[in-house]
Amino acid sequence: MNIVSTINLASVGIFGLILSAGFCGIRWTRRKKLAMAGSIAAIMLFQGIIRFFSGVYFVRHFYPFITHIPLAVSLCILSGEFLWPLISVLTAYLCCQLRKWIALIAVAILSGGALMQDTAELILTLPLLWLLLRFIAPSVRSLSHYTTMEKCRFGLIPLLYYGYDYLTLFRPELLLTGNPAAVEFMPFVCCVSYLMFVLRTSEDERIRVRMEQTQAILHLQMTQAVREIAVLRESHQKSGRYRHDLRHHMQYLLSCIENERLGQAQAYIQKVCSEVETAKVIVFCENETTNLIFSAFSRRAKNCGITINIKAAIPQDIPLQENDWCVLLSNALENALHACQKLTEKDLPGSIDVSAYEKKGKMFLQVSNSCEEPVPFSHGVPAASRPGHGIGVHSICTIVEHYNGMYSFSVQNGLFILRLSL
Question: Taking the mean position of all CA atoms in its chain, how far away is CA 263?
């Protein structure tokens, strides 16, 4: 073996050792860096001693025991983990083939020989190592936080290649004789890997689309709820201005009476009373947002001939975002109102009962409404019977899950009941 080949053999060893450390999710302190440098130096020294006394053949055939196992043990100690350091070593071993294949392309183009192959690999070592550490290693390290199943799935391909490469090193005749299993093994692995990649990418895309749809639905619901609160708040302020301007109203009415324009005075009184009644906000609890929403739905229920009973004990400060509470409350009441409207259209009585309170930093809500038709359920959640429906229920579930709360939907004695705690 010439000097270039010897240096190249040492360089690929250092390449793999450093890359394995770069792939391993270790928080590198100064002490750990020194320990890793010492481990690399010890492994390289051990390789040199083995090569000097036993030759290159022994080093290559027992490389896992001389290099990879000591390296994996060192990384396990430094990281405090077992699985990911092994996967890092296998992945780095797979990446070592990049040097060889890029150099093979250069040799094929320039019609070189073994010396050019070793020289090209040596030249590629530092640039390729920098590129992998700079652009690939962060993504590989991020996978160390995945579940054990995901880690195993990622490490399967490097493991299969490692086993295949090591087997053909001991049994080169499998390739030389054209053994079908040996020849077709890596193409088979590539095919399976591609199919797994397609399935995973497709699943990730479905999850992304579902999350975007959920986000769009929540944004729409929140915008609608915020707009409704703004209108209600403006009406409340308008009612306050009417009360403030009561003196001016009285003066106008007095003027009408003095001039014997009783019809005009009566019409004006009816107009003012109607506007004040429309803007009236009923006080159910201390929370202004809750009062505004309850008042709005109470008026809508009354206009539809639906009985609504509300009991609320919500303080001004609640343990969740006002927008989220607004969306929850509005969707729950909207769904109950729609269900009762279907009954009133058939001249059947409809009623809604609401109970909402805060206790020990948790919010509780129960909304029950009359229900005539059977409600289909899917995994404990009402299933939408028509496209475009079920958005309100989906929004409720999403918000409750965001706060690690609990929800339940049920039908009991002709009543549809929604219970929330968060």
Answer: 65
Rounded-to-integer distance, Cα 383 and Cα 7, Å:
68
For residues 125 and 98, what is the distance between their CA atoms, to the nearest angstrom?
10
Pairing of strands 377-378, 381-382: antiparallel
Beta bridge partners of 309: 353
**Type of residue numbered 108:** A
Task: Take residue 297 and report the two structure tokens written for it.
Answer: 């739905």
| Ramachandran bin of 111, using left for φ above 0, alpha for ψ from -120 to 50, beta for the remaining angles | left
Task: Give Dmax (Cα) for the chain.
Answer: 126
Give the H or E element holding residue 308.
strand 307-313
SS3 assignment for 192-239: HHHHHHHHHHHHHHHHHHHHHHHHHHHHHHHHHHHHHHHHHHHHHHHH
Q: Which pLDDT tens digits describe the chain residue by residue (422 residues)? A: 578 888 888 899 999 999 999 999 898 999 999 999 999 999 999 988 988 888 887 888 888 999 999 999 999 999 999 999 999 999 999 999 899 889 889 888 888 888 898 899 999 999 999 999 999 999 899 888 888 888 888 898 899 989 888 888 877 777 777 777 777 878 888 888 878 878 887 888 888 877 776 676 666 666 666 656 665 666 666 666 655 556 566 666 667 777 767 777 677 777 766 665 555 556 788 888 888 888 888 888 888 889 999 999 999 888 888 878 888 888 899 889 988 998 888 888 899 999 999 988 899 999 999 887 788 888 788 876 654 456 778 888 888 888 889 999 999 888 999 999 98
Q: pTM score, two decimals?
A: 0.56
> Cα separation of 222 and 376, whole Å?
27
Q: 276 with 320: CB under 8 angstroms?
A: no
Rounded to the nearest 10 degrees, the angle between the axes of helix 288-303 and helix 180-244 is: 80
**Alpha carbons 71 and 81: distance in angstroms, whole number:** 13
Instruction: List the structure tokens of 250.
Output: 């009285």
Structure tokens at 313: 């004990």
Q: How far apart are CA 326 and CA 289, in angstroms?
A: 7
